[in-house]
DNA sequence: TTGAAAGCGCTAACAA
DNA sequence: TTGTTAGCGCTTTCAA
């Protein structure tokens, strides 16, 4: 553990050091620092010089203490490095940075009470302007429940839910469109391989089911995959054994790639024997063999919209309850009519 | 832009509110907060109760001001969402969180002076315990130069460099090993497709060149790729036209996948006609067709080691100059002897 | 245009 | 065991 020991670096200069060196009062230094108020050219330059010489930086802690709104936005997520998460965070950070905010990220490793409490508490220990919670998974959902109402908060999700303002990517509609497309190609039904859901059922699964039912098609039991492509591979191998499956809709591209690999290893051809669709439009989806039919999700835009909602909230405004957008289906070469 | 408007959320409770409600003095509240000193069971429970009721959280800003070390670590990077970056950040965050730190991320979009200055300034405006700079690219390198020496700082890189303490993944050695392996298979030389380097030459290129020279093999002119797999594809197509290239060593897996795709599209077989090696062991590398021979880089471990260095620095200790580790070559199926 | 004084929310030192 | 008194480094009145 870290001990509170004296730091070996020299104590950094403070504002009074600058004032003394420049021969002015502390508030005057503060004035030139903030570009505000009137300061004579003479003093201003003296102060600037002193700042340079001392390599002075105002203490962020002191500034934060004094009235000023904190300039930190916390992002809470169950994961930071998987494609969708990373891109969403990128979108948040980019927008936030543009407005002068820094973003912190903290991951909640599981939905277990103690883990969630510890992570949230860590987050709240910083001086925060607001928080964005990625509700892509159970840890995210659990974390949201623990954020005090007094802190401006928005969430990000794949489905509309009541609660704090929310940026959403309307997955269900896109999923339904995928199924429509596949059924239109002549497939009798569409198998679904889903990623770990954030709740009982995620938007992709809901949309898939809805479309199947709307078409009067048989609704197969969804197969659960993990987050790793490897789990898709195993499922692909298993699916290959069932001649009834001619079309598979996967919860994300990585899983789809794994499924394709498993199918191929088991001797099936994609899309000749079975069509496979992913979700997300991962950068490698178009490089895949065959290039993957998938759904483009603008994660960065999603993050950016979440920031927008939060900004309104922080400013004391009343943002829309939802900022919703519809992902786009991208048809490439992993889908075709079923074998005759 | 965000205006400094009054917030609509109620002003959060402060320590004096708790003290008043509990009928004790402010320092007493502080004492129970910090678990220190003697406080009677009676008052302690009164205070706890007041804290609960008010949902009070001590102001991090005030705490930071008063001697206590801030609990925020800033990560500065040229990117946050690409595989290696995201994983490295994950490693940092995980270790930092374990020790009670939150991590902020801010990206530096280019090495342009103004951009770098703005980003760094944003970072320094937070009360920081220390900073980790990802020197994987020019923006990262530029940012490092702007961090004041008074702030505990470590960097992360693929090659050893003088300066602040550094966590390194010894790319050059691994790259050399790849070339040794390929040459051992019988290839006359190895073409190199590199990702945008952080400096004149990155470790992967250095190791590749070194091994080639050591074997007395011809050293081809490296081909520059971008970060997108798509750029690899174009290069692959171009490379297919040159019968002299039978082995290609790529700067990362995404590029390698693009190269393989380009090669394949141009009618070459991998590894029959040309062998391709990637770098990073991306999660999809083993799913690829053919499964990719690559180099496993433990990015999360790298991030974790960087945190370790920083922790020592923050505690006032003197960390090693380098925490170096050697990536491992992973041979899969995208490499074979050259065609007869 | 400038400085003196007050105070942000908290912890540390000192008495009691 | 507890309260009183001082600040931490800065910004913000308020006078001058």
UniProtKB/TrEMBL annotation, chains A, B:
<dbReference type="InterPro" id="IPR046335">
    <property type="entry name" value="LacI/GalR-like_sensor"/>
</dbReference>
<dbReference type="InterPro" id="IPR028082">
    <property type="entry name" value="Peripla_BP_I"/>
</dbReference>
<dbReference type="InterPro" id="IPR000843">
    <property type="entry name" value="HTH_LacI"/>
</dbReference>
<dbReference type="GO" id="GO:0003677">
    <property type="term" value="F:DNA binding"/>
</dbReference>
<protein>
    <submittedName>
        <fullName>LacI family DNA-binding transcriptional regulator</fullName>
    </submittedName>
</protein>
<dbReference type="Pfam" id="PF13377">
    <property type="entry name" value="Peripla_BP_3"/>
</dbReference>
<dbReference type="InterPro" id="IPR010982">
    <property type="entry name" value="Lambda_DNA-bd_dom_sf"/>
</dbReference>
<keyword id="KW-0804">Transcription</keyword>
<keyword id="KW-0805">Transcription regulation</keyword>
<dbReference type="Pfam" id="PF00356">
    <property type="entry name" value="LacI"/>
</dbReference>
<keyword id="KW-0238">DNA-binding</keyword>
<feature type="domain" description="HTH lacI-type">
    <location>
        <begin position="13"/>
        <end position="67"/>
    </location>
</feature>
